[in-house]
Amino acid sequence: MTLNCLVGGTFSDTAPGTDTQDELRLLVDDLGKRTAAAGDVSRSIEQHFDSELWRNLVDTGLHRLTSNADLAAGPIESAVVLHGLARHCARVPAAETDVLGGWLAGAAALDVPDDAPLTVAIAGHTDDQPGASCLSGNASGVPWALDATILLAVPTATDLMVTVVDHPAGVATLGGHNLAGEPRCSLTFDVPRARFAARGPALAQEVNRRGAWARCVQTIGALDTAAALTVAHARSRSQFGRPLTKFQSVQHSLALLAGEIERARAATTVAVAAVADHGFDSAQADYAVTLAKVTVGQVVPTVTTIAHQLHGAVGVTLEHDLWKSTMRARSWIDEFGSSTHHAIRLGNVALTGHRSAGRPWDELFGNAFNRWQ
Q: Structure pTM?
């Protein structure tokens, strides 16, 4: 089967086919266009939960595509959905509900509502005193926390403690948003230890890996939309009697933008394939997601800069849709580990391979996975 889950960009020459991926892509695209046609005229930077789109996702089963075993869907189908929704700047926690929340609830044997949006709060600081009856701490940058059922994941020295936060007892939430206006909240908790399910520390690594994977896929969707808007703008605007696309400097900028997006798409497609073939808990997925996160993080600043430069002043206003895509991409690359964090990890693995066997390139190019995960 051809892995074309991330096609559909402005510079893609892949024609729609009739396989399952194409049918799913058309469905997601239709839902995104339907939401846009409904007329969201708000130009506030704060993006609010799209309840209509969420109902459509629930009705079609796309909200729990991979975490519902009855649907028999996997990472490739998930990538199609996440990429498509990101292209339309969907204001719903799609990745948080399916790839993260639904999976984590199943792994921890916790009950969550079937049709409710979910999110995961990963504690960054925990006060885990020996013998204490409660776990307390805080989590920052929690997506959609005010609109979703929260799964609280608290890493300790020996376990990952997981519970469902479906009421405010013992939890205080402070709202906020990222550069694109998506809700990102701070959460302070003091929850009885008895409410948590204890799982192994490997689960904490997989939570972050799943989140990083999802953000890479979503970022490709955001960059595809930024590219489409930029090309359309360059074709429609004229200077000195000629369309902008006729100027060589603009052509060079568009070529660089396209090349960078395809570089990120290639790395992310490898990550999707690794997860599809070996699972999120595999060394192959650990390597491929790390590499994708580094590559996407390198690409985003270049692409967003070119997009805004070619749009000129209009590209930095709230009245234009460009910022919704570029600012999502800018924000997403820093979630679940920044590109610098993942680059350091990639370098450490290569150096360890060099010191022990004198062959760092095997680790860098995926010929060996002995030191991953």
A: 0.92
